[in-house]
Amino acid sequence: KSDPLAPALYVFGDSLVDNGNNNLLPTLARANYAPYGVGFHGRVPLGRFNDGKTFADFLGLGCPFPPPYAGQHNPNYALTGYNYASAAGGILPETGSRLGKCYSFNEQIDMFEQTIELQMSQIFKDSTQLSKHLPKSIILVIIGHNDYLNNYNDPLYLSNKLYKPLQFAQLLLDALSKQLQRLYDLGVRKVIINEVAPLGCIPTVARRTRLGAQGTRLMAQGMCDDKVNDMVLLYNELLPSMLHNFMSTHEGSYYVLLNIYPLVYDIITKPDNYGFNDTSNPCCTTWLNGTLLCIPDSIPCSNPNKYFYWDGYHPSESFYSLLISRSVYGSSVCSPINIKQLVEV
Fold first, then answer.
1. CATH architecture, domain defined by 9-344
2. For residues 269 and 203, is the Cβ–Cβ distance under 8 A?
3. Helix (H, G, I), strand (E, B), or coil: what is residue 278?
4. Of all helices (H) and strands (E), which one includes residue 10?
5. What UniProt keywords apply to this chain's record, in alphabetical order (predicted)?
6. Which of the residues are catalytic?
7. pLDDT tens digit string along 222-258?
8. For 125, which DSSP code?
């Protein structure tokens, strides 16, 4: 086995990278049942919200799979990386709370801080070792989707009444900047962070918008709710300048932005170019006409690698495989540098 590319990979975010932290929480946002995980090791549903590996699993960097922090008591994982991500969680503390308990980004950072204070301090005998470990480690943050899906676009939240779309985007970025400051203060220097994907195209949004009460017919390819996508684009357009300003004022910090919006939109509207047959309908049978999570023990489609969506919210493993191949070495998805360059810097 070759040496890992980085000493550790620490994962933060939402259900796109959650690998089991929500399993024991009182929440509707759980994926620890079949058919989730049918393509993963041993075909066991461990809590990932697709058929197999997530982007965090593919990223790897030669480290062991970062296990979910919840329920883990082996301090050795503190050295190679934990996964703190929580389905339904977001940048704002109230995001996702209508579904039950989830860990917000701030709560995930709290858990990372506990890891440093309670576990790393036991392993590293002096602060010098710790101060060398954290700056070289890679931090993956996949966040922001639920702040729209399970907050701003949910009529039962007040945010859409209090803020116009541009104001809400700025609110998110102001909070995110403070969260990145917390990570920096803890010793983090290398961060991979995402744009928000075109949420107007995911089945839970697009199917409800287009179908209304028309029943269970399949969606035509590439149909999206432009109003929702326009909201997300406001956030995405402001994010690069926030990260640039942060880097320029924080010595030694490096941020790689995953520009996933244009890639995902292109795949959804031109599936043939990427080897997908269906980019509008979920592979598994879901509650409420293809718009929610998979129905337990239902039989999924026989060719998930040809479906972009696994359920009403989440991409299949095949998308993450494509994304990782373009993120590590290529220049089309990551800016200002790719992941390989981030590791080596």
1. 3-Layer(aba) Sandwich (3.40)
2. no
3. strand
4. strand 9-13
5. Hydrolase, Lipid degradation, Lipid metabolism, Secreted, Signal
6. 15, 311, 314
7. 689 999 999 999 999 999 999 999 999 999 999 999 9
8. S
